[in-house]
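Example 4.3 (complexes with small molecules)
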Amino acid sequence: MKVLVVGSGAREHAIAKALDKTADVYTYMGRKNPGLADISKKYHVGDESDFSCIIKFAKDNDIKMAFIGPEAPLEKGIVDELAKEGICSVGPTKAAAQIETNKAFMRKLFEDYDIAGSIKYGTFYDMDEAFEFIDSFDEPVVVKPIGLTGGKGVKIVGDQLVDNEEAKEYVKEIFEQKMGGFEGVVIEELLVGEEYTIQAFVDGEHLVAMPAAQDHPHAFEGNKGPITGGMGSYSDTNHLLPFLSQEEYDASVEIMKETIDAIAKEAEPYKGILYGQFMITKDGPKVIEYNARFGDPESMNVLAVIDDDFAKISKQIVCGNLEDAKFENKASVCKYVVPNNYPNTEAADTILKVDEEKIKDLDAQVYYAAVYQDENDDVRLTSSRALGVLAVRDTIEEAEIACEEAIKYIEGDIYHRSDVATKELLNEKIKHMEEVRK
Ligand code: GLY
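Answer. The structure with glycine bound is encoded below.
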């Protein structure tokens, strides 16, 4: 079976690596990712929003199935365009992808279909009405642009915003800049608890959930600094998290099932990967947001422990006959290596040296992200996350230590959060949840 992977980051590297076990991988990428280039039978470097070029590459290579990694082409309707040419995709149509690409759609869906895990919110296309809502809210708020912002548009009072007055200034900015492509905003109540991710395979009707994972979105140690695409993540042997019970995991999956039923009724059947970003609160799981694709870095955690034929599962997703998916009872830790001073780095275009052999000898893995291979085959940084280093072991503690060992074999103008998935940080999370549940 041939599969075309669209995308050029570590998430797509992880997807390609998992598919490569039983399928022939072809890649269409915006930038030459050395990991993807190595795996691919053939690759093309081109504009990821140039669908005619993607279709030509697929047809030239007689490919009938695509796996869409990032959200941007989903928003632009890549799945619909490929379908017109007889190419089916692991990824939702433009209408179904609104669960990620339109935060107003997502919140209204929860309200209209009375889905559990809903929260207090308001959607506004008039700035003064948004201000009035914030003034009357009397609690700290979360401000979200309606459309896509590369994971960097959400701002929270008590974190990136000092108070609700500053939240109003941010609302003004969103309206003035039409941030995320909409002159509008979603204002939500601030949830208290611990965030976690559940990703699931969905075939339009059936949903099969993967192990839970937890990302570390803040740039700096101690969960400080700006929110980034994610600085590292972990998953546990029992597929839960140290602060998340089986009951809470099951309730979260039930919410995801209700969501796909509602998307099918309101838009179109959802096929692809559904990423649920949850907060476990004293009142149970609440949905923060959905993504219409694998998480980055969380894709690396789950795909590294999948104990099944991923290409077969992908085919079942597009054919609508999804059955089950098995995962090893192993823990995984992924740490992102980023350019120094990320996200305001000046290290872009400098050389990154990765001793892949030494890292392999340590039984750890490298997933290339926003780097590129130049004409001399040197790997160079960009201003975004460079690569994910991942280790799978019997415990989170062992996987975290292995990750740190492996990162010693990477040289360059780089930084990583050494506290990701450490015992100290996990104990803080457990303690935090004990407080929240009181
Ligand atoms: N880890 C956050 C995301 O994938 O959007």
